[in-house]
From TrEMBL:
Region (Disordered): 68-98
Signal peptide start-end: 1-22
Keywords for this protein: Signal
Gly residues bias spans: 73-90
Protein name: Lipoprotein
């Protein structure tokens, strides 16, 4: 019978050690308080709450932009005093930041 030296035997067996089942901690298996009632599991459909998004015709992008754009007076710097004449703030003399 052929005998492996100790380092070679260890090198051959060590990779197989990861395949052995580990001992499961008792806290994961046993309930902490077994007298507390627990609801039984119930059936739920996998598709419960799924919405149907069917194919629709394309909409006008300009109208969609108007629907989500901020309304006049709802924010921004347009209503702030002294901002009308500043360049880049959308006033009458706005030169586009140049």
């Amino acid at each position: 019978m052929f005998k492996l030296p100790r380092p070679a035997a260890l090198a051959a067996v060590l990779p197989l050690a990861g395949c052995l089942p580990a001992a499961v901690p008792a806290g994961l298996v046993l309930p902490s308080e077994p007298d507390i009632p627990v609801r039984p599991p119930r059936y739920a459909k996998v598709t419960q709450g799924v919405k149907d998004f069917g194919v629709v015709d394309p909409k006008d992008w300009r109208e969609l932009n108007r629907q989500v754009a901020p309304k006049a007076g709802s924010g921004g710097m347009g209503g702030m005093p002294g901002m009308d004449g500043m360049p880049g703030m959308g006033g009458k003399r706005d030169s586009g930041g140049r």
